[in-house]
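Q: Can I see a sequence and its folded structure?
A: Here is a first one.
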Amino acid sequence: MADAASSTHKRKASSPEGEAPNASSSSFEKHDSKKARKDPSEKQHAEDCEDPDCEGCAEGEIVLQFDTKPSAVELFQMAREEVSKGEGAGAVGSLSRMAKALFDKAIEEFEILEKAEAHIEVNDGTEVGGKVLETRVQHAACVVAVGNAVPSTEMLQEGTRMFEELVRRTDGGDGNVFVGLGIAQISQARDQRGKAMKAMMVLAEDEDEEPSEEQRDAAVLVGNAELALVNHGLESFGKGLKILKAKPESAFAQESIRAAQELEEYGVSLDLKVNHELAAKVFDCAIQHLEDVQKANAALIDSNSDVLSIYGSCLHSKARLVDNESQSEDNPAYAYIEKAIELLVKAEELQNEDGDAKTLEALGQAYLMSTGFIVDEDTMMERFDAATEKLSRALELDPSNEALREQVEALQGDEDGEEFADEDDDEGGDFEGEGEEDDAEVDEE
C-alpha cells in the first residue's frame, strides 16, 4: 500500500485473521452498523483491496497494519487524507471503508489516551497540560470530521458537546477550542440544511405536480434551530480568532482560513433569495476573515489555490447578494464580481492541468454574471464564451452535477442559436444580392 502523505507509517488491507482494531470501544462504532464478513477460506477480496499479500479480506472490513504504530493524531490525519480522495468502493455513506477504519482506530486511540490522561488538568498552564489539551481538541475535531464524512447527526452533536466541555475546562481562554466549536456548530447547521434539501426533493418526488413557489420557499427557509447554530458558530469564530490574534505566535491566519472555509461551504448551500439576510451575514464574516488573513500573511492566500478559490466563491456570492440588476459598472455587484474573477483565475493557474470542478464552476458563474455589467459587445461575448468553457470543463470533472448539466446545455444551446442566426443572416444577404443582380439584368434587357 502507498504511504500516507503526511506520515511515514504504512497502512494496508490485510486478511481478517490479522489483529483488527477493537472497534467496540470507539465512539464511531456506537453510531454505526456492524461490519459484514465473508468466509476467508474463499479468498475473496473487497474491490478496493490493494494489498498484494492479502489472502482474502472481508467485504466491509479493513484490517490495519503499521510498520510503526502511529499516534491518534497521525491516524486522524491519515483518515482525512483518505476522505479527500473521494468515495471509494464499499463506502459507508460517503465514507470509504479505509477512511472508516482509520477513523475507528483514531478515535479508539484518542479514547485510550483520554483515559490515561484523565488525572491531568488541561488548564494548569504547564507544558504537559497544554499537550493534553491539544490532544483533546484533536479528538473532538476527529469526531466532528466523522460526523461530516458519514454524515452523522449524532457524531456532530457529540463533537460539539466535547468542544463545549473544553471551553468550560479552559475558562473560555483558548482560541483553538473556540474555532473548533464554531466548526462543529456550523457543521451541525450544514447537516440540518442537507436534511431540509432532501426533504424538499422527497416532496417534489411525491407530488404529482411540481411544488409551488410557496412550498419551495418554506422548504429552503432556515428554521430557528439551524439559525441558532449558525449564530453560535459565528460567535465562536469571533471569540476564538480574537484570542488568537492577540497572540503573536498563534495560528491566527490558519484558523481564520478554516473558519472562512466552513462558512463558505455552508453559505453556498443557502437559497440566497429566501435567506438573504443570513447569507449576507455568513459571507460577510467569511470575507472579513480572509481579509484579515490577507493583512496578516498574504502569502497564505496568494500561494494557495484552495484558499483563493474559497475567497473568490465568497465574493461571487456577495456580488449576487448586492446585485441591484442595473446593467452598468455602477452596480455594487460589479467590484465584487471582478475581484472574484481575479482570484479564481489565480486559483486555476495554481492548479494542475485537470483543474478543480468547484473552482471552474465558480469562475464560470462569475464570468457569466459579469456579462450583465459590460457594455462592450465584444468583451461581453468573450466573457460569455469563457463562462461556457469553464462550466463545461467543470461538468466534465463533476458529471453528477445535474443542475450544472442543465445550465451548460442551455448555454451551448444559446451558442448554437446564435450560429444559426448568423447563418440565416448570411443566407438572407446572398438571396437579396442575387435578387438585385436579376433586377439589373431585367433592366438591361
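Q: Show me another, different protein.
A: A second, unrelated one:
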Amino acid sequence: FIGSTEDNESTTLGREGSDYTAAVFANMLDARDQTIWKDVEGVMNADPKEFPEATFIRQLNYEEVIEMAYYGAQVIHPKTIKPLQNKNIPLYVKCFLDKDLPGTTISDQNISDLPAIIVIKQNQALVHLHTRDFSFAGEKPVAELYNLLAELHVQANLLQTGAVRIDICIDDKADKIEKLALSASTLFDVQVEKNLTLLTIRHYREETIEALTRGKRIRLKQQSPKTIQLVMSD
C-alpha cells in the first residue's frame, strides 16, 4: 500500500491502507469475499478496554459499519467498505488467535435487533459561536464555518445549530482550537469549554443512556431515532 503522489513523492494510503488495498483488489477481481484477520473476536459493540462487558456482533451491514466509523468507533475504515459495497462483496472480520471463531460478517443484508453500539471520545472541547447582532445563524454563516473547518483540517464530531448560535464539539487540540476561535471571532462571539467527553450511542436504550450519564452534566445533546450524542462533563 505504498505509492507515490503526483509529484513522485513516496506516500501511503493512510490508516488501514492494507485493508483498503485488499478491498480494491477484491473489487477488481470480482472476489467472492474478503477476510480481514485481527487480534479480536470480531466487531464489538464497544471498546472492550473501556467496557469489559462489550459484546460481539455477529452480523452488520455496510451502512452500519460506516456509521460506526463516522462516530469514532475503531472498526473497518469507510474507504475499505466502498469497493466491496459497490460489488456487494461480503467482508469477514476474523480472529487470527482462534481461527474457529465465527467472526463478524459485513454485507448488504438488512440487520435488525442490534445491541446498543457505544463510542466514547475523551478530551473534547465545545466551541460556542453566537451571532453578534442576533441575526440568524443561517446558510451563509454555516457555510463559512464549514469552509473554515475545512481550511483548518478540523473535524466536527458534533455540530448543532440554533437561531442565533452554533455549537461544535471537536477534539481538544490547543493549536486547532486557538486558530478556529481566532478565525471565527470575525463572525461570532466565541466561547470554549474544555475537558469534556463525547458519548455516542447507536440503537440506544433508555437504560443504557441512564447508566452511562449517571453523575455527569450534559452540556449538549443531539438525538435522532437511531443515534444519540451527548457532550458531558464530570
